[in-house]
């Protein structure tokens, strides 16, 4: 059974080259990321008709789990749960996820179409247009089904992007509180400023934090959290420190400390543990090699979780995360070569 379980909002990424006329037709801008409106509905079929169309299993959490699987290159290492429709796009999404080696356990909602993300590419620039569809409809009853709960019970690492808070806080609570008994590692990502700015979402985050062993985010999300909480500071290191000191629940009878991992783009990654901050350098690339930075954060988490599942320390986890991110940003979308040029040395460290 899988060592790493992701739960999130699955999207079928439909990626193809587009021209300026198509961008103008749908009112899209290079580098833009928007939620689809009614006028954007035809863009998905139009992209699917392109000869160079590619289908990628997308959504923030699913991206991270796919990258973790790619880094590990071990059959059955990862699993993923989320909600899809009962349509041709769900079949394409399942095929893409399985092709990447991830065990996909999708809940099906026959009344709602599968979530889609149109990825229009023009001169190395992308525009993303997302229709969440069935991804919004995941229910906690799915994870509690015996065959799915068995995956939860055996997984040693659980991960969700913060976007899942907007969909199924009940599923987050069921899995995160289970880790108190199992001793498994629970990981959560801030994901976007609105997650900490909208009161119901922030309340779910605050309720879950005592069970979170690893909290991820970027500098923008960290500062948004500080502002929402009334912390009078702009220092990412201070914010990470304060987040690391929020008390944790005991797990399997042991007291644990939270790692807070904040990426800063081209600047060093900030990691806070028990009030102490350490900075870890990133891999700096020649700008001419960078194709698309949109998946960098998801890829970093994927590499980090892969190393964590191998019992690596935080330094090695950051190195693995930086490697995977550096590879993904040299490709369009969250895609990668057949195999990583990376190996995990044997480790005597305990996963927990």
UniProtKB/TrEMBL annotation:
InterPro entries: Adenokinase, Carboh/pur_kinase_PfkB_CS, PfkB_dom, Ribokinase-like. CDD domains: adenosine_kinase. Residues 34-337 form the Carbohydrate kinase PfkB domain. Coiled coil: none annotated. It is an enzyme of class 2 (transferase). It holds the Pfam family PfkB. It comes from the Eukaryota. Its EC number is 2.7.1.20. The keyword Glycoprotein does not apply. Pathway: Purine metabolism; AMP biosynthesis via salvage pathway; AMP from adenosine: step 1/1. Its cofactor is Mg(2+). Keywords: ATP-binding, Kinase, Magnesium, Nucleotide-binding, Purine salvage, Transferase. It catalyses: adenosine + ATP = AMP + ADP + H(+). ATP dependent phosphorylation of adenosine and other related nucleoside analogs to monophosphate derivatives. Belongs to the carbohydrate kinase PfkB family. This is Adenosine kinase. It comes from Prorocentrum cordatum.
């Amino acid at each position: 059974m899988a060592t790493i379980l992701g739960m999130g909002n699955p999207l079928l990424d439909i990626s193809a080259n587009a021209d300026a006329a198509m961008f103008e037709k749908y009112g899209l801008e290079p580098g833009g990321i928007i939620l689809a409106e009614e006028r954007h509905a035809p863009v998905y079929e139009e992209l699917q008709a392109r000869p160079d169309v590619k289908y990628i299993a997308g959504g923030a959490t699913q991206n991270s789990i796919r990258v973790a699987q790619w880094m590990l290159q071990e059959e059955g290492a990862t699993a993923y749960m989320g909600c899809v429709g009962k349509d041709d796009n769900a079949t394409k999404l399942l095929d893409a996820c399985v092709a990447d080696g991830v065990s996909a356990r999708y809940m099906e909602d026959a009344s709602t179409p599968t979530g889609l993300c149109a990825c229009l590419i023009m001169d190395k620039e992308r525009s993303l247009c997302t229709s969440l569809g069935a991804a919004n409809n995941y229910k906690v009853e799915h994870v509690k089904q015996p065959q799915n709960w068995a995956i939860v019970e055996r997984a040693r690492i659980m991960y969700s992007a913060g976007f899942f808070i907007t969909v199924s806080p009940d599923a987050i609570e069921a899995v995160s509180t289970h880790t108190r008994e199992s001793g498994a590692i629970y990981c959560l990502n801030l994901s976007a400023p609105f997650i900490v700015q909208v009161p119901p979402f922030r309340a779910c985050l605050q309720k879950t934090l005592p069970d979170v062993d690893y909290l991820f985010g970027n500098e923008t999300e960290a500062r948004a959290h500080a502002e929402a909480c009334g912390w009078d500071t702009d220092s990412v290191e201070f914010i990470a420190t304060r987040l690391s000191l929020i008390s944790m629940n005991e797990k399997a009878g042991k007291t644990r400390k939270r790692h807070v991992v904040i990426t800063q783009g081209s600047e060093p990654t900030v990691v806070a543990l028990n009030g102490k901050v350490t900075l870890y350098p990133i891999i700096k690339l020649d700008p001419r090699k960078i194709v698309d930075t949109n998946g960098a954060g998801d890829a970093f988490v994927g590499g980090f979780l892969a190393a964590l599942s191998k019992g690596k320390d935080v330094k090695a986890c950051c190195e693995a995360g930086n490697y995977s991110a550096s590879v993904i940003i040299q490709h369009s979308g969250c895609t990668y070569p057949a195999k990583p040029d990376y190996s995990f040395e044997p480790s005597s460290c305990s996963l927990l």
